[in-house]
Specification:
Structural class: alpha/beta
Strand content: 15-25%
Largest sheet: 8 strands, mixed
Number of helices: 10
Radius of gyration: 17 Å
CATH topology: Spore Coat Polysaccharide Biosynthesis Protein SpsA, Chain A
CATH architecture: Alpha-Beta Complex
Length: about 230
């Protein structure tokens, strides 16, 4: 039986900060023999994305700004049986390929989605506290964010209606539809880590930034429009 083709969709904006290490980690899949394509959905100045994509055998499509719109456009351009949505400043931990392949091959995998364990690229004790909180939220509340990646069968993604063109909370919106349809068991957290840049926490404050994120999430659940939340998020 043909192994599933995995399409990795990565949104970028202007300078594509962090994209190089992100793409380098994806080379593990090709080295392991997993058929994979990488689609970069670039908004703004796509020059940096194109340069890095050429080195990593990835394709680039130009899209309007807005992560929801970019992810949706990337999925439409991709041809894989499985989709992995990943942020440009996120680097998958070595060993992720074997775990992702096992998930895709599991019985009824096409009815579930998976995210990776959240980690930050900082040695500060505050980073470990934020990681524990984020992973608790993912396990107990079935509410991961996009910086943990999302691995999902194309057919299930399509049945859910895909990403909506939202400027913020596009990840929460899709996962909520998944959980409503499949229940909490429809989302699995893998052991491998998605290591994300901690620059927003270092610049915004180890305490203030998480509180800001939590406030924005609360406002979203209270019905505040995503366009307003995007301005507050900064």
């Amino acid at each position: 039986m043909r192994r599933p083709l995995l399409s990795v969709v990565i949104p970028t904006l202007d300078t594509a900060a962090g994209l190089g290490p992100c793409l380098a980690a994806l080379a593990e899949a090709r080295n392991a023999g997993l058929p994979v394509e990488v689609v970069i959905a670039a908004a703004g100045d796509a020059t940096a994305s194109r340069v890095l994509a050429a080195r990593a055998d990835a394709s680039v499509i130009e899209t309007p700004r807005g992560r929801g719109s970019q992810l949706r456009a990337g999925a439409e351009a991709a041809v894989g049986d499985w989709l992995l949505f990943l942020h440009a400043d996120t680097v998958l931990q070595p060993g992720w390929t074997a775990e992702a392949a096992a998930f895709m091959a599991a019985e009824n995998a096409g009815e579930r989605a998976a995210c990776f364990r959240f980690a930050l690229d900082d040695t500060a004790p505050q980073a470990r506290r934020i990681e524990r909180l984020a992973n608790w939220r993912s396990r107990r509340l079935a509410l991961p964010y996009g910086d943990q990646g999302l691995l999902i069968a194309r057919a299930l993604y399509d049945r859910l209606g895909g990403f909506r063109p939202l400027p913020l909370m596009e990840d929460v919106d899709l996962v909520r539809r998944l959980v409503r349809r499949q229940g909490r068991s429809g989302l699995v957290m893998l052991h491998s880590a998605a290591v994300t840049s901690a620059v927003r926490y270092r610049s915004g404050g180890w305490l203030l930034r998480p509180l800001r994120n939590l406030s924005i999430l609360a406002l979203y659940f209270a019905g505040t429009p995503p366009r307003v939340l995007a301005r507050l998020y900064g």
